[in-house]
Amino acid sequence: MLTPISAARTAKDQPSGSSNRIERVAIIGAGGQIGRYLTEHLLKTDKHIVTAITRPSSTSTLPEGLRVLRVDYTKSEDDNAELVSALEGQQVLLITMSVRVPRDNVLKLLRAAAKAQVPYILPNWYGHDPANEPLLRDSMMLEMRDQVDAEIKRLGVSSTLRLACNSWYEFSLGGGPARFGFDFQKRTFTLFGDGNVPLNTTTWSQCGRAIASLLSLKELPENEADTSPTLSQFCNSALYIASFRLTQRDMFESVKRVTGTTDADWTITQESAEVRWKNGWDAMREGDWTAFPKMIYSRLFFPTGDGDYHGRELHNDLLNLPVEDLDDATAAGISMAERGELPFNH
Q1: pTM listed for this prediction
Q2: What is the mean pLDDT of residues 221-245?
């Protein structure tokens, strides 16, 4: 169910000549893992001028069709005039950064965006259900959400957008046993619990399509009677999407089909998801970042429905997202793993 941010805020109330759509989008991290897919699908719509704001030292390969501005966005707020200038006139700022980047970097971007009067920000949130506080607390993400929300509220300029897509499927499948339990080099598979806990998981391309579709909606309802989907309906809320709803055992069946293997070809073990999470949590508190995947993934497989969005209705149909082929996505994840393209943590 979508709730408008303000029933009185409609396109007809805007100044004459105002556009009721998003035309200018800025993105931090356009060449990164998720950023390149967001950029690719935004460009495909041919509805937006997309500006990549990238560090002067960046060597990332960026797609054609982007407007590229090289700016050091890690500078202090007293020295960010160049960043503010780059953000002026932008309607949306998409922030895509590693979870290991100092959190203050995101806050600096929020403050620069406020100075530039950017109305919408997606503040580096592509994953967990942002409304599930027990899940976020157990995944060390609640403080990050609350810190960003508090800063946005304090600044009083922008509204947040967040993408609830859970784990990226190809990345999680091929990224080692700490994630979905698979090691394709050693051909081992670890079941978390009985392996029958379902979760929603999303491909990178589906994430890109979702954001491109969201930003292609009308910004505001035309008038009070207009009930069609709008971008404003997702302000300070979340977009819920998925490519697949799967258990680990469902994934394994797809893996066997793709690889032409049987159970006998794999070494299969079983561990408690709760114990894996506790071990990962304890290691993280001691400063061991290599335990982060183990901690955050095992928490999704608790038998409490957290990885299944607690049964929330998805927005796939509203955004006209396609039904994807599971085995194709599985093959892509395995291929990435075999080529060594994914970060790998035991």
Answers
A1: 0.94
A2: 94
Q: Domains of the chain, with CATH numbers?
A: 19-166+205-240 (3.40.50.720), 168-199+244-307+320-338 (3.90.25)
**Confidence class for position 294, pLDDT limits 50, 70, 90:** very high
Tell me the backbone φ, ψ of residue 135, rounded to 5 degrees: -65, -45
pLDDT at 213 (0 to 100)? 98
**Residue 200 contacts residue 245 (beta carbons within 8 Å):** yes
Q: What is the pLDDT of residues 8-49, one digit of tens each?
A: 378 888 887 788 999 999 999 999 999 999 999 999 999 999
